[in-house]
């Protein structure tokens, strides 16, 4: 078969973008649970721009039943409260989608593929964590954390400063971030805030509080930290936090 004929067959099998689309296949439960890469499971409602099909063809996204979806992509109002809904607005003058209670985001349907992937990836649920990151300048705490995390995770990265972590760490799959609240040039709360804003991959976070200040703990919780511990670090308590995070992703 000639290359041109092969591509004609492939293109003929792709759902046209001017037709209403919904999930075409249901990913298996095992497939969803074992996914650790940047593959996002999506459920679509309404007309989808061809950028969505492009992301599916390239393996970045997989259409699935809404029960397994990380995010719902919709171009019209949909009733859904459990799964985050990202609306692709086909009409820039129509503001009705912005008024919907379940709209996590409303973005133009003409958005580029790379930016769309970045927005969708932020909603990927962490299924199985195999990478961990430590950010601390305390050598004793660093050695202790390395001893506890090395055998639990496939890959472990260590940074002493916030800038190094944000500049050098490239996450390709969900990860665990363990950081101390006191860091050079930027405290742990700023690290957490910037990581939440800049990281494409989802992550869990445990903060090691150096000073046990209530205000710091409140801010950390408000900024999405999953666990807080104080010094001196209690090993069994730390292991319990790890088991809890592992249980959340089973």
Distance between the amino and carboxyl termini: 45 Å
The largest sheet is: 6 strands, mixed
Question: What is the global morphology?
Answer: elongated
Order of helices and strands: HEHEHEEEEHEHEHEHEHEH
In which range does the helix fraction lie? 25-40%
Key structural traits:
single chain, 250 residues, alpha/beta, Rossmann fold, 2 domains, six-stranded mixed sheet, five-stranded parallel sheet, 11 strands, elongated
Protein described:
This protein is of the alpha/beta class. Helices cover 34% and strands 22% of the residues. It is built from 9 helices and 11 strands. The strands form 2 sheets. Strands 1, 2, 3, 4, 5 and 6 form a 6-stranded mixed sheet that branches. A 5-stranded parallel sheet has the order 8-7-9-10-11, sandwiched between helices. α5 links the parallel β7 (131-135) and β8 (155-159). The longest helix has 14 residues, at 235-248.
